[in-house]
């Protein structure tokens, strides 16, 4: 792989990107390799909630160690849950024996910009009871949570309030648990609201009412695979969930029964895997991701189906998926169910013949950044013609990308901007990524693993 792409630096060769203001990936030839990404953020944070609220201890293996899981762990420790972190953060021993409501002092919980953490904890703590204020970084205070607060307001014995304009965090909770057993929740902004309420339902045991909790979904439900994931994790911890026709404003019925501690194994992160499958597509190489298969719990494994539609060859096995890059053509694709891979696809689209239309992802505007408008801005710096739509974007690659001078790209504190846009450097020269450390949200070692996969010693650009 003497002509393999790599990233370059003028200063240290540390294996972390915390010190570097920028990274440049240098173009090269086809990339061939195998990789196992770190544990799934979504599964880790679900398992932490269920384990923390269970009867009995749990052992979580294959867990993710990143900012999003660290803020979840610290919040659960604040209510007395003992969480012993070993094996570099991949093994979590959770003992809820000393768990206790924060009834006296208001517990201030810092959530950074972790959507799963703040949505799941808002629901769980409102059902569990106590006094909590959940705060984040400025962007978190502009990410919507009002629909979740409204749903909880229908059942809470106490008060809950989203303090920022437009129903955004900080969230203030003063609760004696849930007294009601039925609520409506909107599904069109984020599936995390429904997921959070589902996982919280068994915690409302304190109320006299032991009837099952009914969650009525209003509007279109986005990111549906995450709801199936939530039900699956809940049942692994002894929960009982019925999903009733969610395709048309259905409902979810959850039995009020305590979670039971258990040993729980977490699969690698499929959203992270998308970057490595994309490397094969972009460079015409062959990349295998281990630990994931078409039967994985994460919907984002479906990203390989999109690459297949663009012309790639995909080999699906019981414990790995391989992508072989082939000449690419643009596609028209609804990515509502795999919205975290839109940025990955957008970069692959830069090297396809013909335009790519991404639809069904209006909700991507509310994530770590506006993942339609800001993404379009950075793609245009790479010469692409990009049309923005209310629900997505159309990307027409530059015909002369091979002679493009390159660009310095903003990442907006969005880990997925940094990880996806860096892949453009595999084919285009002088693509510099600012603030690479922002990958620490879900993948602190991304650029180290990228270097390892593309085969050169590790360097960083000044
Ligand atoms: O439930 C989850 O674990 C997630 C749901 C998705 O959010 P939306 O439902 O807002 O699309 C996704 O973007 C996020 O990374 C993780
Ligand atoms: C949107 C994301 O995460 P969250 O909503 O949990 O902040 C993400 O990881 O792309």
TrEMBL record:
Reaction catalysis annotation: 3-phosphoshikimate + phosphoenolpyruvate = 5-O-(1-carboxyvinyl)-3-phosphoshikimate + phosphate
Keyword flag Zinc-finger: no
Annotated keywords: Amino-acid biosynthesis, Aromatic amino acid biosynthesis, Cytoplasm, Transferase
One MF annotation (Gene Ontology) recorded for this entry: 3-phosphoshikimate 1-carboxyvinyltransferase activity
Domain Enolpyruvate transferase span(s) in chain numbering: 27-450
Amino acids binding phosphoenolpyruvate: 41, 115, 143, 192, 371, 416, 441
EC number assigned by the record: 2.5.1.19
GO cellular component terms given for this protein: cytoplasm
GO biological process, one term: aromatic amino acid family biosynthetic process
Region Disordered, residue ranges: 1-39
Residues annotated for 3-phosphoshikimate binding in this entry: 41-42, 46, 190-192, 223, 340, 367
Catalytic residues in the record: 340
Pathway stated in the Swiss-Prot or TrEMBL entry: Metabolic intermediate biosynthesis; chorismate biosynthesis; chorismate from D-erythrose 4-phosphate and phosphoenolpyruvate: step 6/7
Keyword Transferase set for record: yes
Comp. bias (Polar residues): 1-19
Pfam families: EPSP_synthase
Subcellular localization: Cytoplasm
Main localisation: cytoplasm
Function, as annotated: Catalyzes the transfer of the enolpyruvyl moiety of phosphoenolpyruvate (PEP) to the 5-hydroxyl of shikimate-3-phosphate (S3P) to produce enolpyruvyl shikimate-3-phosphate and inorganic phosphate.
Quaternary structure and interacting proteins, as annotated: Monomer.
Family that this chain belongs to: Belongs to the EPSP synthase family.
The protein's name: 3-phosphoshikimate 1-carboxyvinyltransferase
Organism, scientific name: Rubripirellula amarantea
Classification of source organism: Bacteria, Pseudomonadati, Planctomycetota, Planctomycetia, Pirellulales
């Amino acid at each position: 792989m003497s002509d393999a792409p790599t990233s370059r630096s003028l200063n240290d060769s540390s294996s972390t990107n915390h010190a570097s203001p920028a990274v440049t990936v240098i173009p090269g030839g086809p990339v061939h390799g195998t990789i196992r990404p770190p544990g799934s953020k979504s599964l880790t944070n679900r398992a932490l909630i269920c384990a923390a609220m269970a009867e009995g201890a749990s052992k979580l293996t294959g867990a993710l160690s990143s900012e999003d899981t660290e803020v979840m762990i610290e919040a659960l420790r604040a209510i007395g849950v003992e969480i012993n972190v070993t094996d570099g953060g991949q093994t979590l021993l959770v003992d809820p024996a000393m768990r206790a409501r924060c009834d006296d002092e208001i517990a201030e919980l810092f959530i950074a910009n972790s959507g799963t953490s703040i949505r799941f904890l808002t629901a769980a703590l409102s059902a569990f009871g106590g006094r909590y204020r959940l705060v984040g970084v400025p962007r978190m205070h502009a990410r919507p949570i009002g629909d979740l607060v409204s749903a909880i307001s229908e059942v809470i014995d106490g008060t809950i309030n989203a303090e920022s304009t437009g129903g955004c965090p900080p969230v203030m909770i003063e609760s004696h648990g849930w007294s009601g057993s039925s609520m409506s929740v909107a599904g069109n902004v984020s599936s995390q609201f429904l997921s959070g309420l589902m996982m919280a339902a068994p915690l409302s045991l304190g109320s006299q009412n032991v009837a099952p909790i009914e969650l009525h979904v209003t509007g279109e439900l986005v990111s549906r695979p995450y709801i199936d994931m939530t039900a699956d994790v809940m049942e692994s911890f002894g929960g009982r969930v019925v999903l009733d026709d969610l395709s048309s404003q259905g409902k979810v019925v959850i039995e009020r029964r305590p979670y039971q501690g258990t040993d729980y194994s977490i699969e690698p992160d499929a959203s992270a895997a998308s970057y490595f499958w994309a490397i094969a597509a972009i460079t015409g190489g062959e990349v295998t991701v281990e630990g994931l298969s078409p039967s994985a719990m994460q919907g984002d494994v479906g990203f390989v189906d999109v690459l297949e539609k663009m012309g790639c060859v995909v080999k699906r096995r019981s414990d790995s998926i391989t992508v072989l890059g082939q000449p690419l053509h643009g596609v028209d694709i609804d990515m509502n169910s795999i919205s975290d891979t839109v940025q990955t696809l957008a970069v692959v689209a830069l090297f396809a013949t013909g335009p790519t239309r991404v639809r069904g992802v209006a909700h991507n505007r509310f994530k770590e950044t506006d993942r339609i408008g800001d993404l379009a801005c950075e793609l245009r710096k790479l010469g692409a013609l990009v049309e923005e739509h209310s629900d997505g974007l159309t990307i027409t690659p530059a015909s002369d990308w091979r002679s493009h001078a390159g660009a310095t790209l903003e990442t907006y504190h969005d880990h997925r901007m940094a990880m996806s846009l860096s892949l453009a450097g595999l084919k285009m020269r002088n693509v510099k990524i600012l603030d690479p450390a922002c990958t620490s949200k879900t993948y602190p070692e991304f650029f180290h693993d990228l270097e390892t996969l593309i085969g050169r010693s590790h360097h960083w650009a000044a």
